[in-house]
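Subject: sequence -> structure tokens, single chain

Hey, anyone have a minute? Need the predicted structure for the following. Not urgent.
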Amino acid sequence: MRITDSTPDPVVLAELGQRLARLRLERNRTQHQVAIAAGVGDRTVERVEREGATTLLNFIRILRALGLLEAVERLIPSPAPSPMELLTRAGRVRRRASGTRALADTDQATKAAWHWGDQGGSGFA
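Reply:
Had a minute. Here:
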């Protein structure tokens, strides 16, 4: 079954559970073996495979026990910076976020900045 945006949540959960069961069987592992490796109860593995219902933590533990945790990287990849962000950063790595104080300091510096007519004299060099 193909999961799409229009697939109801309970159906998605059931499909994920069935896929985990098939992958477990392909690896020739019992539910009990997976439960022990994942550090969860046998009933948890059974419930996940039957209806897909579990906590995210238990799901991650079961994925790890089946050697499937790296699939999460493909599912939710780390966001890459945009091309414009790469140009403006020019190789610098951002180390902290600017807060409201930094914005206030910038506003004061702008107010104290030089303005036309402040140079004195004729203004021509």
